[in-house]
Amino acid sequence: MHQSSPFNHRLLPYLLVLPQIAVTLAFFIWPALNAVWLSTRREDAFGLSSEFVGLEHYIAIFHDATYTRALVNTAVFSTGVTVVSLALALLLAVMADRVVRGAMVYKTLLIWPYAVAPAVAGVIWWLAFNPSIGVVAYYINILGYDWNHLIKAKDAMMLVIFAAAWKQISYNFLFFLAGLQAIPRSLIEAAALDGASPFRRFWTVIFPLLSPTTFFLLVVNIIYAFFDTFALIHATTSGGPAGSTETLVLKVFMDGFVGLDLGGSSAQSVVLMVMVMGLTVIQFRFIERKVQY
């Protein structure tokens, strides 16, 4: 009779996870703790001296009109990016799922934008919509709308929303397409035999089965809009005009690295982290109940 040998390497499991633990501690836990520590201190511009001020920075940011403006901008921006990127990605995934000839070429072209660096994507959109030299801005003006994101806050917000959504559509497309291809065709064919229209088949059969994928992408896209769009916004509008596209993550950079207010920017980063954690908990607490696994 074959007998299994006992596992004597008690330290091996810990050694295998040690690299991941080291990366997490070095790049996530330590920076977060350091931000909390800096948020309770006031430092001079050269970092030579500091003093403990407690919650003074937290109280100050909530009495700052520019912070309130950045908070509103972030809410509008994150909502717009999430809705636009998810809706267009789902539409493209449904269309790609029906393509028979040239399907691989079609899917590859849709995935390409995800490989573009955020800063490069921002420059591309800035050039395309530049009111002086932009090709897209030229045709928009021909259609009768005076596009100028350099002086119009509404145009600037639309530009960063669509630029960030364009960058994220490829990521969402991959997951939606995988979810669509995992749905048994027999269910869709049964609904068709029962007389359900294509729209009704999608809304009552396909979309409910995609709810786990949609929920996952909802969480990912909100986190993306809050954190991963800094380079794109900075390259496109730099928060202008007059702070109309300055989001919370961009304000952290501007106050900390440009204004050299290390304590205030650290407090802002802590508040931003708590906001995202709170939104994630709310989504898992309330929205996940409607997900059909």
Automatic annotation (TrEMBL):
<dbReference type="GO" id="GO:0005886">
    <property type="term" value="C:plasma membrane"/>
</dbReference>
<dbReference type="InterPro" id="IPR000515">
    <property type="entry name" value="MetI-like"/>
</dbReference>
<keyword id="KW-1003">Cell membrane</keyword>
<dbReference type="InterPro" id="IPR050809">
    <property type="entry name" value="UgpAE/MalFG_permease"/>
</dbReference>
<keyword id="KW-0472">Membrane</keyword>
<protein>
    <recommendedName>
        <fullName>sn-glycerol-3-phosphate transport system permease protein UgpA</fullName>
    </recommendedName>
</protein>
<keyword id="KW-0812">Transmembrane</keyword>
<comment type="function">
    <text>Part of the ABC transporter complex UgpBAEC involved in sn-glycerol-3-phosphate (G3P) import. Probably responsible for the translocation of the substrate across the membrane.</text>
</comment>
<dbReference type="GO" id="GO:0055085">
    <property type="term" value="P:transmembrane transport"/>
</dbReference>
<dbReference type="Pfam" id="PF00528">
    <property type="entry name" value="BPD_transp_1"/>
</dbReference>
<keyword id="KW-0997">Cell inner membrane</keyword>
<feature type="transmembrane region" description="Helical">
    <location>
        <begin position="75"/>
        <end position="96"/>
    </location>
</feature>
<comment type="subunit">
    <text>The complex is composed of two ATP-binding proteins (UgpC), two transmembrane proteins (UgpA and UgpE) and a solute-binding protein (UgpB).</text>
</comment>
<feature type="transmembrane region" description="Helical">
    <location>
        <begin position="201"/>
        <end position="227"/>
    </location>
</feature>
<dbReference type="InterPro" id="IPR035906">
    <property type="entry name" value="MetI-like_sf"/>
</dbReference>
<feature type="transmembrane region" description="Helical">
    <location>
        <begin position="156"/>
        <end position="180"/>
    </location>
</feature>
<feature type="transmembrane region" description="Helical">
    <location>
        <begin position="12"/>
        <end position="33"/>
    </location>
</feature>
<keyword id="KW-0813">Transport</keyword>
<feature type="transmembrane region" description="Helical">
    <location>
        <begin position="267"/>
        <end position="287"/>
    </location>
</feature>
<comment type="similarity">
    <text>Belongs to the binding-protein-dependent transport system permease family.</text>
</comment>
<feature type="domain" description="ABC transmembrane type-1">
    <location>
        <begin position="71"/>
        <end position="283"/>
    </location>
</feature>
<keyword id="KW-1133">Transmembrane helix</keyword>
